[in-house]
Amino acid sequence: MATATEAPAAASAIQAFTVTVIIRRFDPEKDAEPYWQDFDVEMYSTDRVLDALHKVKWDQDGTLAFRRSCAHGICGSDAMRINGRNRLACKTLIKDLDITKPIYIEAIKGLPLEKDLIVDMEPFFESYRQVQPFLIANSKPDKERIQSIEQRARFDDTTKCILCAACTSSCPVFWTDGQYFGPAAIVNAHRFIFDSRDDAAQVRLDILNDKEGVWRCRTTFNCSEACPRGIEVTKAISEVKQAILRGKP
Amino acid sequence: MTTIDAPRSPYARTRRGLNLEKWGWIYMRASGVVLVVLIFGHLFVNLVAGEGVKQIDFAFVAGKLSDPFWQVWDTLLLWLALIHGANGMRTLVNDYVTKPRVRGILLGALVASTAVLLILGTLVIYTFDPCPAGADPALVASFCADL
After folding, report:
1. Which of A127, A161, A196, B1 has a CA 20 to 30 Å removed from the CA of A71?
2. pLDDT tens by residue, A83-133
């Protein structure tokens, strides 16, 4: 009985913290320039940055604009720059940040800012489309296309991409030159270039053997560090470089 | 039964002229490996071997530049290092200069200065006179006395 009476007491004792979030706001209809605005929110250590944004939007300032969809780290909608690093708001726990200091949240860089934390993703998707990210197979098998475990493992890492743009918008080459295909497009090209069922690897290698293709990569590893899915992005880009040098995957 | 139309967004990027990016990338790596040997060899012979730093004077340099082995070594060092550096500068300009006019001016200046330095450097290596007429025998290479 003693434990039963203690349990509610322990539950109610979970400590809440006051966390200051400083958000880079921009309303194209009112503001000439973006500005920083701070909010104080009550958070638990198990909460995520996305919960902080929800609290701000629902309880304090309904004009705050940000994208989120599934809120479970798979839709790739809520990539943003949190304390200077690209992360998914829905995968970043408050307890992993230093809450003695304010948490700085801003939109990802290198893409046109539309409002608050929302950027225009079209240039990003345009690069993605250009690498032809779909299966191109010449043969028409009677049943399924057979693939061995080793053949599948060859490109397993790059199948994990959720197109959140955290990598591309952390790339210093992309910041200064929006024409660069960017890590995400190359990762998704890699996914098909090394797929044994696909027949158009050469087409994609030709596309990426471009002035704005893989040769612009400076291996700064920002992309690998930013990827919320843990894809070894820089390694994938290097493998595509090697494939271009070899002339085949 | 209908099938889905093939690729909705065909590759549209137009290719402008010769694409040397791949060769530039390969050059940086190949020349880098050779340069490590050339540079450390150069530094060792000049600064460590023999009497070390103290040995460097006109006679020492003149002696080296009259030896075919060091002429080839220095020529390779000059060309590989200068083009390596210029190509690195070119990538920096391409990364950070977005205005086509400014980019053109900077790249032009880069090519011009590299060409001038290569020609001047090569000229010096192969036309250097180790024994200038009327020079103090104490300052020139020892073999000048035999001429």
Report:
1. A127
2. 999 999 999 999 899 889 999 999 999 999 999 999 999 999 999 999 999
Site from B3, B27, B94, B102 to mutate, A interface, most A CB atoms within 10 angstroms: B94
C-alpha count within 13 angstroms, C-beta hemisphere, residue A168: 30
Q: Which of B12, B15, B95 minimises the CB distance to A173?
A: B95
A245: nearest CA partner in chain B: B22
B56, HSE (Cβ side, Cα atoms, 13 Å): 10
Calculate mean pLDDT across residues B96-106: 89
A115 touches B: beta carbon within 8 Å: no
Look at the domain A122-246 and name its fold: Fumarate Reductase Iron-sulfur Protein; Chain B, domain 2 (1.10.1060)
A173 touches chain B (CB under 8 A): yes
Residues carrying CATH 3.10.20.30, chain A: 15-119
Residues A57 and A67: beta-carbon distance below 8 Å? no
Of A245, A181, A241, the closest CA to residue A213 belongs to: A181
pLDDT digits (tens, 9 = 90+) for A165-190: 999 999 999 988 778 899 999 999 99
CATH number attached to the domain at A15-119: 3.10.20.30
| pTM of the predicted structure, to 2 decimals | 0.83
Complex-level ipTM: 0.76
pLDDT for res A11:
58
Q: Which fold has domain B27-146?
A: 3 helical TM bundles of succinate and fumarate reductases (1.20.1300)
Domain ranges of chain B: 27-146
A192, A135 Cβ separation under 8 angstroms:
yes
